[in-house]
User: Fold these one by one.
Assistant:
Number 1:
Amino acid sequence: MKSDLPTLSAPATPLFDTLLVYGVGLLGGSVALAAKSRHVARHIVGMGRHAERLSAAQRAGVIDSYCIDPAQIPPQTDLFVAAAPVDRIAGVIREVIPALNPNCLVTDVGSTKVELAAHLADLTGEQGTIPFVGSHPIAGGDKAGFEHASGDLFIGRTCVICPDHVVESAVLKTEQFWQALGMQTVRMSAQEHDEALATTSHLPHVAAAALAGILPDEWQIVTGAGFRDTSRVAMGPSELWVSILESNWEPVVQSLERLQNQLGAFIQALKTNDSQKLLELLQAGEIRRKQLDIDES
Amino acid sequence: MKSDLPTLSAPATPLFDTLLVYGVGLLGGSVALAAKSRHVARHIVGMGRHAERLSAAQRAGVIDSYCIDPAQIPPQTDLFVAAAPVDRIAGVIREVIPALNPNCLVTDVGSTKVELAAHLADLTGEQGTIPFVGSHPIAGGDKAGFEHASGDLFIGRTCVICPDHVVESAVLKTEQFWQALGMQTVRMSAQEHDEALATTSHLPHVAAAALAGILPDEWQIVTGAGFRDTSRVAMGPSELWVSILESNWEPVVQSLERLQNQLGAFIQALKTNDSQKLLELLQAGEIRRKQLDIDES
């Protein structure tokens, strides 16, 4: 044994003293667990509307303590993560902001960014004073609730950071936070984020739901792995997805129309017996999809 | 220990003496391995166009022996499985039939059935004499070649049997064969099979390829598990899928148009801000997709 190996113990000083997570569900719970296990914050406080759920999360070891009333927020809170459903994030931030130290970094985990930024423009935009940095950790799962949370949920995944109208130091601190949870970060404007995610996240959800939605009862028995994989994300919570899709409806409509057009090209190739065109369309998908696996490995 | 427990050794008499498999790839190789390990045939012969591939499959223990020339087919062959790509199955059957014992049961693993039945109508239809029973074992994988074959590929999966214009004894024997390989069987006419599979297999492939095909380079980094799952089957071999889609083009076009219409309903709900309709569309997919997992468990 060598005694001069670097030790893997906790860093002497955590990045944050007290992390406040509003919404201790799958994502919020995973943020709490990852921050705890990686010593990113000294103390982790959960917040939400349901005391019994927060109490259960505390007993399960997901959070250290919890509060319902903003008046109970610890004054030393220096990071606030809003992990509510996307249509409630602005309201949650407005509710909590008055109780926070003005230097407390504020971020979120929302799936869309333009509408949120508009709703918070007076607080956080060019005229605002709150150090709000929009974050979208691209990680999740089909099952809701902190019971399914995992401190490993973010490892190796990408987090988009939207630095619109925020001081660089706050952006850097936000990047450090997600990187400390195991993520790679990428900066995009809120608008670019929403256009990209309309295609990479919202479109596959709608495609999966549309595919599953037109399957007749009597043909369920002849579905194989292909149908199941292609429609798997449709099992996600529909109420949540209504909020996501509506908060980004224009880019989502554009991506849906692009998919319709691409399906139309397949229809045209089949109707005209154009094997070469059909092969090109299939290969465009095959090559691009294989590229995703290469990039991930 | 009790001595009167039933023994789990091989049945005294295998269902078939000699199984001939044309096309020793992923599916044909898996048929050979499953038939061997489950003692469904005494001897397993591979056939194909490439002696070096067949020799490699023999050395790998996938088949017992192989032949290239129909003249070399063992006279005791009593089951022939055509496991060639769907556009070559009719040709393969025509090539091999003259060398087979007239009582040899003939089946296939093709993804479409109507076109094949039409191509073989003179041999196998109402006027024909060959005991041909169309089979479609709904099992597979992204990777081609016997190197990826598995004797467990079929366990718990469904095999569609098309009994059009065949004597009942041949249909029963074909069902016994796939059941002995671990599958559940379901009977459908060739036409019903092709309509069902257009929706349950061919449509998800095209949807996945269309989705992957419209993803711009620069957004690859913000794809998550949702995009990857929904587009996974697009990694299947495009040349093979040209044959499948073209051999079933009319039902495939109909299923593509149904998907376009369903996507259009999502677009309409988003454009008119109709949250209730959007929720209904999402829930239709969520409920149906969850049903598939319940049925499988």
Number 2:
Amino acid sequence: MTRSKPRPRVDRKNLIIRRVSTYLRTLDHLQAKGVGIMSSRDFEKIEGVTQSLVRRDLAEFGTFGVRGVGYHVSELRDQLAHVLGLDRRRNVVLIGAGGFGSVLIHSESFKKRNLEVVQIFDQDPAHIGGSIEGIPVHDMAALEQELDADRIDMAIVAVAPPEVQGVIDRLGRLGVRGALYFASRAVRAPENMVVLNMDITVELGLLTYLLG
Amino acid sequence: MTRSKPRPRVDRKNLIIRRVSTYLRTLDHLQAKGVGIMSSRDFEKIEGVTQSLVRRDLAEFGTFGVRGVGYHVSELRDQLAHVLGLDRRRNVVLIGAGGFGSVLIHSESFKKRNLEVVQIFDQDPAHIGGSIEGIPVHDMAALEQELDADRIDMAIVAVAPPEVQGVIDRLGRLGVRGALYFASRAVRAPENMVVLNMDITVELGLLTYLLG
């Protein structure tokens, strides 16, 4: 194996951003329930993060809330969505329309986060030429011809583990700047591409460890 | 809202354990490829974690590898599986046999981690009474009667966000000690229960933040 530059590891800022994402989901939830004002103590109770950590996390991005009053839920919600870059629409390409991919596209998570799946690719002849939620499924073999790279902001990659690296490499060459994939497999991120991974086996390992 | 004790936040040890889980997946992968010996530099190249961090992480749990030689892949694999508590079988109950739950049960992730789904519960009459991969699907309404609590080590909860808290509470009362759920929603963990969450909206928020 040849030596290559290591990718940066998940750093402190990423942990803060992940927590801010959980504050945003809590604000969404409270807003839907009609709550107008909340305190950092409410974050502590709901998300299990201490009040002081909530305040420190928020202070990274500006001054929020009113001393002695708390946070205006809808205002803070919009401010944090802006911090996370979720206040404008992003176009998503979904790679893999099989089991997990099709669950994803029917989920509320994308729409709630202003993410719009605009293209789908799959290698299964049973899917190619069809459509999901009105979005046509293209042949993965024609990715280079069919991907609307100028329009795509990020990719959701729901393919089998052995295929992930190849898919990420092709997306990188086409100029796609970000991807999230779900396989239990490390990939090398192409230069100028942000690649994140959600791996259920990692959480399962943490769970069995904590259970002893 | 009443005040309650905050749950502990994800701490340093959990981060180490998550990284150790990724080392394990890399070892699995190298073992499958027939690699016998590896170095911490290989971890750096594959998982993007610096060699020194790999060494520090492993040093938390013992002395591994041979100076000047490296790590024996299959030996380190078994040692880390032991550290994570994955060297013995765990019985899993799956709550929710719909879209995501059914994808999960067909995935390799459980078996690779020595986790065996032994019971399934669902509230959908279309699933109740049927079976998935030979495992009967029970009625969620009969959880208290049908759950084989003595035998269950942990739960995988794949139900809609508004239902997660109720399901976790019921599992906690039945003595289930651990659960992993996937909704974009915080839950209060019952005492003596470890509850982990994988929330795709959190990763999507990190991705859009990093893309700017």
